[in-house]
Structures are given as structure tokens and as C-alpha cells.
Amino acid sequence: MKNRVKIIFNPMNKVVEVEKGTILLDAIREAGIMIRSICGGEGECGTCKVILNKGEVSPISTKQEKRLSPEEISQGYHLACQIRVLSDSEFTIPVESRVFSPKILLKMESVIDRINPAVRKYLITPPAPQEGGQYQVRLEGYSGPAPQLCEGIYEKIKELSGGGQLTATLTTTGGRPEIIDVELGDRRESNYGLAIDLGTTTVVAFLVDLTDGKIIGKMSELNNQITYGEALVSRIAYGSEPKGLKRLQEEAVRSINDLIHKLARSASIREEEITDLTVGGNTVMNHLLAGKDPSYLAYVDGNEKVSRDPIIMKAKEVGVHTNPEAYIYCLSNVSRFLGGDAIGDVLASGMHKSGEISLLVDMGTNGEIIIGNNLWLISCSCASGPAFEGGGIKFGMRAMRGGIEHVKINPETFEAEYTVIGDTPPRGICGSGIIDAAAEMFSVGILDFTGKIVKGKTPLVREGRDGLEYVLVPAEKTAIGRDIVITQRDMDYLMDSKAANCGAIIVLMRKLKISIYDIKNVYLAGAFGAYTDIKNATKFGIFPEFPNAKIKPIGNGSVAGAYATLLSIEKRREAEEIARKMFYVDLLVDPMFSEAYSESIYIPGNKEFFPTYGL
Q1: pTM
Q2: What's the CA gap between 507 and 134, in Å, rounded?
Q3: Which of 264, 358, 528, 551 has the fewest CB atoms within 10 Å, i.e. the most exposed one?
Q4: What Rg, from alpha-carbon coordinates, does the chain have?
Q5: Distances in Å between the alpha carbon of 98 and those of 66, 107, 358, 434, 439?
């Protein structure tokens, strides 16, 4: 036992025992504690801060010296990914490092015309033994091809055939009709499915009655993979090793199973009554759920290797707690970083059915841009970084309790007014808040058109460790006892993100030879569209002005696509057709992108795209 050490984590009062020399971040993961770790443990982001109360540790590199301030080091701060634990120890995980329940978007656009699910239940005509003791299975009201059934289902029919009425569960997800379960009694009205948005950060699940399409429960929680890196590239790196891939698959499945258990319990149904699942997830998440090696997605030529066919597997193959024979249908991927979640966005918007030219933007860690109509679709993705979700910013955080979500700056006093999620003292600033703050700083003149903080106008702008910084909230008004500031490094990162996104849109528009006046609809998917002040986003230059367009937030397009394909075979075909016909532009190798990016690195950008605000 002397080679094992005991670690206590406060304030959650959790205890874990690990091998001496274990990296602390691994111990935190083993304890099941959610901690911020944008870079996945590479020592590059500085978000996994902990305070050593007692015990002995040793650093594995000098990286934490660059990420922690002298004041933090003097107070016992360390980066969990950069120290090994050498003795029994006690740590505090400070409030800024903890991951709280986020503000998750559960609203969606329903796009179902007719309910026609891939799974239905039929009464079995009482089977009569044939020659050789075989049974012939007939389904009342079913007129399709003869269904397949495995030996186990066949034996179950024989076993139950003398007990009264039987109900068969029939699915067509696997390609051919297949009986996946048999139950005693008339169970036709007890048929449920699950529509899942498997996000990089969060997982959303809708429990749906497949007989009438009614949503009987919806829940969400953090993706348990989050401590292995918040960025997709971190997940790819971790999942490129067999052991890491297995762990990430297990964590994704654990997140889904937690939601299944809660939803089934709240609806008073058995988990086994869930007979079909559909998933809207990005390409990386789909690979990790299915246990497919994601390593090729790290390379540009990976785009050509991404299959545009939906990933389909059985629940029992990955350990999902539903009917074990239920199929999991993942909406088709298009490229390395444009997946089934974007296909769901298109389905939810209906842009692929309209004669008008529309733009769809789904902005997160990875920005997805799609322009098109009923004849064509062209797309790209841009590495806008997690800035629009509060990542990569000194006091940035996800949209969760304590996060500043909206900002207004007084042009005379330069003091900020703000609203906070949960109406509590702030502990950081989330994506919508940082966009507001940047636009407001520009409007009142403490940020110039190049994104540089302007000195001399107010004492709230001061010299800091990362250059000039603006004091958004003084320490006495925060939950963390420190000034919440926006630094020049934050602004440089935000400027890079906004230029990448706006530049991506400009590239597609120039390839199509269309202007801002040709776009008639702008669909904004996800939390960005739901919570961001669109006027401020345009003023800052995240996307161009579109004078003739209607701005339409569509909510959670990923779960909307999963819901549509859960309830309609026709929507599955529609989704697969969208993926097949979508043309993808890889900005990493497109020479037009560097020029468009350079034009967009100013606030707001080229006057061609910003006639009201532009330079």
C-alpha cells in the first residue's frame, strides 16, 4: 500500500486512492470530478488550476510557471495536468476551475410532416407449427418484405407462443426489416425512441413516443469526455491510442446512459422499451461513440476518407442501456469538421427546400458555415476556437451559473453594466458576454479598429500581466475575489476568431460570386443564435451585414435533426441526400481564405461587407 496515495478534493469532499506518481488530472478524472481542461492536459490552456493545501507534488514541466501568476504560485496554485502526486494530499479546486451545469439550449424547430418511424410494433398472428417443428411468423397489418429474425428471437416466439397475444418490434434501420424483440400482450402503444445531440461539451436527449411523435421528456448534461480536452483536436489526439479511444467511448456512452436512466424513470417506462436511437453529432463525436479510430481526422487528406453514409450500430455493441437490439443511427458526416450536427441544422432550417439563397451559421469551438438553396449547398468549417463559448479568455467560461452573459458600457463613466446567469455574483464571462463587451468597448472608444485596447481614457484601462486590460468587474463584486478583466491577449484571440469566421463566409460568397444583398435568410443555429446580441455580433464583425435577409434563430438544430430522423424514414433519406450533395471547401488549403481573413482582422471589416459600420 505504500506505493499508493490518498487524495482529498475540496470543496466536494471526494477521496480517491491512486498510484504514487499519478498525474493529478488523471486522479481528478478517476474521482469523477468535472474540471476545466480546454487543452486536454497539455499544459497549454492554464484552466485546470488547483490549490495544494497539504502534501508533496512534483512538476512534470515548467509550463505552469508560464500559465500561473506569481501571486497564484505564492498561494499554492498548480495546474493539475502538470504535477505528479507523491504523498497523501489535499487539494482545493477553486471556483474558476470547476465545471457547473451549463445553460443548455433545449429549444428546436420541428420539421416533421408525417410520422413514419423506422421502428414499429405489430401483433403476431398466432404461429402454428409447420413441418419439422418450425414456426411461420406473420405480422398483422404488415405488408413489406419478409423480416429477418435471429435465432434468439425465433426461440423467444416459440417459448411465448402458448401464453397469449404476442407483439413484435420491427425495425428497418439496418437496411432490411428485422424483428428485434417479442413481448407478451398487445404492446403496440409502448414504443419509444431517443433523439440525441452528442455535443463536444454537452449531451441533450429527447425521449419520444414513436406512436405519435410526442416528446415526453428532455434532459441534458455535460459530456463526461470534457476533462480529456474541450477542443476537438484534443479529443482526436487522446482517442488516437486504443486505450484513449476506449475511454472516450465509455465516457460518451456513460453520458447517454445517465440521461436514459433519468428520462426512463421520470416517464415511468423501462429502459428496454426504448427501441430506436438517432444521434446528431460532429464527425469526431460520431467516431468516438462508435469506437472508430479518429486519428485520420487530424490530417487534411482526412476529408476524402470521411464516409458520407450514416454510422449505424446496435445499442448492445457499445453498451447503451436501451433494448439491446435497438439500432443507433448517426446522421451522416460530410468532412473532418462538418458532421451530422450540421446536417441536422440544414434539416431544421429548411434551406435545402427553398428557392432563395440562405446562409446558415453554427458557431462554437468549430464554426460551420453553409450557403445554398434547393438546388445546391456549399459549406466550410473554420477553426474559430472556443472564444465564442468563453474558452481561451482569461476569465472566460461556459454559459453556466455565474457567467456574465450580456454587457453594456456607460460611454461617460466607462463602467460596465451586466447580467449574470443565475443572478449571482459573477465568476467569469461567457461567449455572448465577451462579444457584447468587445462591441461595447469599440463603441465607447476603449478599443480601436485593430482590436487594441486604448490607454488614457479611463482608469479602468490599466497595465496588466498580459499587456493592457479593461476592468469589467472589480474584485469586491465578483464571486472569485479578483477583478474580472478583459486583457489584450483576450482581444487578440477574439479578433483571430472573428476574422476566421467572417473570412470563411466571405470565401464562400466570393466563390459563388454573390453579394450581401443576395442572401435572403440567415439561420443561426445553437446557443450562439439563441443568446448572442446579433447587432453587437455584426458591429464587431463576426459576420457581415445582410440588409435583405431575415435573421432566424433555429435553436438546437442537432437535436432537431435527430428528432426528425427518429420519427421519419423520409427525413433520414433527406438527411443522407443533403450530405451527399453538399460541396465542401477546405479553408486550410484554399488560397482565398488568407486574403479574406486579412480583410476581416479589423473591426468590423471591409466596407463591401459592412456598409453601415465598415472602414
Answers
A1: 0.86
A2: 64
A3: 551
A4: 26
A5: 21, 26, 39, 20, 28
Q: Which of 121, 109, 236, 130 is nearest to 186 (CA)?
A: 121
- Please answer whether residues 354 and 304 qualify as being in contact, where contact means their C-beta atoms are separated by less than 8 angstroms: no
Q: How far apart are CA 297 and CA 293, in angstroms?
A: 9
Interacting residues of 374 by C-beta distance below 8 A, sequence separation 6+: 352, 353, 354, 355
Average pLDDT over residues 274-303: 96
Q: Which helix (H) or strand (E) holds 442?
A: helix 431-444
**CA dist., res. 456 & res. 464, Å (int):** 14
End-to-end CA distance of the chain: 68
Give residue 102's pLDDT: 59
- Joined together, the cell numbers standing for residue 354 give 427553398
Using DSSP, state whether 530 is helix, strand or coil: helix
Q: What mean pLDDT is predicted for residues 296-321?
A: 96
- Of 299, 318, 312, 305, give the one whose Cα is nearest residue 240: 299
User: What b/e sequence results for 95-113 when a residue is b if at least 16 CB atoms lie within 10 Å of its CB, and e otherwise?
Assistant: bbbbbbebbbbeebbebbe
What is the C-alpha separation between 380 and 501, in angstroms, rounded?
Answer: 10
Cβ proximity of 270 and 264 under 8 Å: yes
- Beta strands 327-330 and 274-281, pairing class: parallel
Please report the beta strands in 283-423, taking only residues with DSSP state E, as ranges in sequence order: 311-314, 327-330, 358-362, 367-372, 377-382, 403-409, 416-420
- Give the amino acid at 311: I
Does residue 130 surpass a pLDDT of 70?
Answer: no
Q: For residue 217, how many C-alpha atoms fall within 13 Å in the half-sphere facing its CB?
A: 19
Mean pLDDT of 80-90: 95
Measured N-to-C along each axis, helices 557-567 and 569-581 cross at an angle, to the nearest 10 degrees, of 130
Of the chain, the percentage scoring pLDDT greater than 90 comes to 76
pLDDT-based confidence at 231, cuts 50/70/90?
Answer: confident
For residue 128, pLDDT beyond 90: no
Contact, 280 vs 344, CB < 8 A? yes
Q: Which of 1-15, 484-498, 579-593 has the weakest average pLDDT?
A: 1-15
Q: How many CB atoms lie within 10 A of CB 66?
A: 11
User: What is the separation of C-alpha 450 from the centre of its chain, rounded to a whole number of angstroms?
Assistant: 31
The answer to whether 161 and 299 have CB atoms below 8 angstroms apart is: no
- Least Cα distance to 451 among 291, 267, 297, 615 occurs for 615
Mean pLDDT of the chain: 92
